[in-house]
Structures are given as C-alpha cells and as structure tokens.
Amino acid sequence: MKENAVRRANDPKRREKIIQATLEAVKTYGVHAVTHRKIAAIAQVPLGSMTYYFAGMDALLSEAFTLFTENMSRQYQDFFAQVTDAEGACQAITEMIYGSQVTTPDNMALMYQLYAYASDKPALKIVMQNWMQRSQNTLAQWFDAQTARALDGVYRGDDAAFCNGSNAAGT
C-alpha cells in the first residue's frame, strides 16, 4: 500500500472535452434539449464527470458559449488582420457574410442557439454583449461607434441586438 498516494485524473483534458461536447450537443439537439447524459455520451466521459467539473447545466452552457464566442471573435479579428482602411473593412465584412470560413452551418446554429438561450439568462446576455463589444471594437478602428454597431448587426443579424437588450443606436 502506498502512503500519500495522489489520485490523478485519468484524462487531464476531460474538462475541455466536456465543453466541446456541450457545443456539439447544442448543435445536435438544441440548447433546451441538452442534458448531462447526452453531453457525457458525446464526450465519452463518465456521467459523474459532469457535476465534478461543473456546478450545473447553466455553468456548463455558460462556459461552452463563452468558448464559442471567444473563438468566433478570434476568427472575426483574423478577417481584419490585413485591413488598412474602411474600404478594406467593408470588403472583409462582405467576405465574412458571404464566405464560408466564419459563417459555417455549425457556427450559425450555435449563434442562434446562444441568442435563444441568452434571451432569459442574464449571465449569457453578458457573454453575448462582450462578444458583440469585441466585434464592434474591431470595427471601430475604421468606423464611428454607431456605424460599427450597425455593421456588426448586419453581420450577426439585426435581431441579435434586440435579443441582447440593445438597439442599433446602442441603448
């Protein structure tokens, strides 16, 4: 018998697997039909891992959607990496809207699930507002604040601003 034996997790990336599986479950089943059991099955982890790593479904969904919005923000900013003027920014926005690198079916499904879920979850509204603010800050390099909000609204869909509790004028 070993003294002072320390139990280590069998899978050090289990938490990250669960978060990724949560996003997959949301795409597959919709946010309101996601369960711990479905996520655990997708992640191929024991069901008990769900409550070991996360306080509950709201905490798990919040972390998963935070990861999603951070990834989307990075992709968004990458489109503007070589932009030097407003005309280039307009071109980048057009490419994002009509291209398939960022507006993939998976990303769009998650985006609309986030909008629906955030409509009655204050913590998720903050995640969404932070995401929108990061996008608008990127656009503010070339446009005034109101134009940046409007362009971001076109990219996301005008309804996103209203789900988020603000309008195109930023109030």
TrEMBL record:
What Gene3D superfamilies does the record tag this protein with?
Answer: Tetracycline Repressor, domain 2 (1.10.357.10)
Start-end of DNA-binding region: 35-54
What's in the keyword line of the UniProt record?
A: DNA-binding
Tell me the ranges covered by the HTH tetR-type domain, including all copies: 12-72
Pfam families given in the database record: TetR_N
Q: Name one GO molecular function term.
A: DNA binding
Which InterPro entries did the record assign?
Answer: Homeodomain-like_sf, HTH_TetR
Q: What name goes with this protein?
A: TetR family transcriptional regulator
